[in-house]
Amino acid sequence: MVELTYQMALSTLQTAGLLIGILYYIMDLQNQREDQRIASTRQALMLKSQEQALETRQAQFFMQIYDRFNDSEFWKYYIELRSHSWNDYDDWNSKYGRKNENAFSAFASMASYFDGLGVLANRELIDIGMVDELLHTRVLWFWDTYRYILEEMRKRNNNPRIWPHITILYNKIQTYVREHPELST
Fold first, then answer.
1. pLDDT digits (tens, 9 = 90+) for 35-62
2. Residue whose C-alpha is closest to residue 121's, from 65, 73, 68
């Protein structure tokens, strides 16, 4: 018969305690891994949700800008500017400068609008792709038509900050088009 001694009982309890500790540690590691996986999944879902919210806000913001573009007053200004003709800056200034309030208001309104888009595009608060897709022709027309006037105005007033973001907007659109040759077809 085997006698149960104090030493054997203590040794058995120590071994059992060690095994229980090891099992507890393994279960704890598994729980930590599962918690990390759940946290990682939750974080990925939260990031995707934030990206979707940002895209939605940008689209809503752009539509507010586009609504201004579709405003009847804006189109009156656009049509007004399309009817202008001049030989040089002095000719333009005498016909359409500040003395001609309606003509200058049309010019200033369009310049301010495109300058504002340029600020937003420069700070990457608006997707230049959306600007290009919806306003490409108008932006390029305005720049091509009024570039000389803007540059001369800046030079004569010794102020390079007269609607400077129109230039930036034009350049960003040109870069975007170069990077997306599929748009030219």
1. 899 989 999 999 999 999 988 888 888 8
2. 65
